[in-house]
Amino acid sequence: MCQGINPQETGASAAMPGAAVARGMRYQIALVGRRNAGKSSLLNMLTGQQISIVSDTKGTTTDAVAKPYELLPLGPVTFYDTAGIDDEGELGALRIAATRKVLYRADMALLVIDEQGLSACEMALLDEMQSMNLPTLVVFNKADICAPKAEDVAFCRARELAFFTVSSKTGLGGKELKRLMVELAPAELKAEPVLAGDLYQAGDAIICVTPIDAAAPKGRLILPQVQVLREALDCNAMAMVVKETELAAALDKFASPPALVISDAQAIKQVAQIVPDSIPLTTFSTLFARFKGDIGPLVRGAEQLDKLNDGDRILIAEGCSHNVQEDDIGRVKLPNWIKQVSGKQLTFDVVSGHDFPDDLEKYAMVIHCGACMLNRTEMIRRIRECERRGVAITNYGVAISKLQGVMDRVVMPLRHLL
């Protein structure tokens, strides 16, 4: 039984460590603080490169600056240098809002403090980050100018906040800061992620069913399919890839049944009719419901599809921007299936990327993509926010399985997680 894959082993080149790691597999680390606290200088020190522009002029950083980096032994991360939380004016308010969006999807935050010490706005931000259960490290910068104030150190200790002193100008404390960041990372981030590797044994065979239709990317597989195949190799299993039209013939070639069949969700009804009940069956999207989120709420959320009423509004949440096709799964196929099965008059809204509405209460439910381009923290926060607002949430694959009448069978291999 394989317990997971190392995200550092997903095709990163030797010349640029971690470069080929998917964006959604990177840990997100946000550098936040007031203007001129030294966030940009700190990012440059951590990465050993001149990534962000450094200036004495307040507000030099406007949009968040992203820098992929290999923070060993934690793995591939993305640092975000953000606008100051004390920015001013109409544009300043927009920049602060953008900084909060980065925090919403961050796995960890570095709150950078300059020689002025902790101010009221930073203390308020710390309260907010603690309420988000966001691992936070207070970084007292500019140690070449002065030491942290005694009252600020006492504040951190009283709040049980991790803190450290550095000088981004001289490089003092850089290596130790990286070590503390690795130590601060929650166990969930340090654990090796699992898609399906605990559902079969080394030496087992699995079948991946991947339809090739107009929506399939030209010349390649989609990320969940690639990750499942790579995981099978890491687990010393044998993986066969077929289209749904060749599945029956593929099953006939096995002397003993495969340990698992994983199907594209759009073909699950046809695949379920071909695969005997004795063979475990699931979908790539269902595996990603577990890999990138919390499968329990997503399975329970799919039950809302049986409770829709005329006039209900449904949110389709896409984790990435893409060229919309005529048979787009989220914008065309799913809404049509839901209208057909429910027989209700419904309205569908769509958001993409890191956009996620604040007024969730106006929706009867949220149907999310597989989140392959989002990190797990952001997906978990979206699930928890929906739960807090009393709004059902599910994902594409689980919803399709429910609409096709095979959800119970599809989630059966993962029943221990429900």
Description:
This protein is of the alpha/beta class and 418 residues long. The chain folds into 3 domains: 184 residues, P-loop containing nucleotide triphosphate hydrolases (Rossmann fold), CATH 3.40.50; 83 residues, Rossmann fold, CATH 3.40.50; 117 residues, Rossmann fold (3-Layer(aba) Sandwich), CATH 3.40.50.11410. Helix content is 34%, strand content 17%. It is built from 15 helices and 14 strands. The strands form 3 sheets. It has a 6-stranded mixed sheet, sandwiched between helices. It has a 4-stranded parallel sheet with strand order 8-7-9-10, with helices on both faces. The protein has a 4-stranded parallel sheet with strand order 12-11-13-14, sandwiched between helices. Helix 4 links the parallel strand 5 and strand 6. Helix 12 runs parallel beside helix 14. The longest helix is centred in the N-terminal third of the chain and has 17 residues. The radius of gyration is 24 Å and the shape is globular. The two termini are 20 Å apart. The N terminus is likely disordered.
End-to-end C-alpha gap: 20 Å
Largest sheet geometry: 6 strands, mixed
Which homologous superfamily in CATH is the superfamily of the largest domain? Answer: P-loop containing nucleotide triphosphate hydrolases
Helix content estimate: 25-40%
Q: What is the count of β-strands?
A: 14
* Broad shape: globular
Overall structural class, as computed from helix and strand content, comes to alpha/beta
Could you tell me the mean pLDDT?
Answer: 87
CATH architecture of the largest domain: 3-Layer(aba) Sandwich
Radius of gyration: 24 Å
Physical arrangement of strands within the biggest beta sheet: 2-3-1-4-5-6
* Low-confidence runs: 3-20
| The CATH C-level class name of the largest domain | Alpha Beta
Number of domains: 3
Total count of helical runs of at least 4 residues: 15
User: What percent strand?
Assistant: 15-25%
CATH topology of the largest domain: Rossmann fold
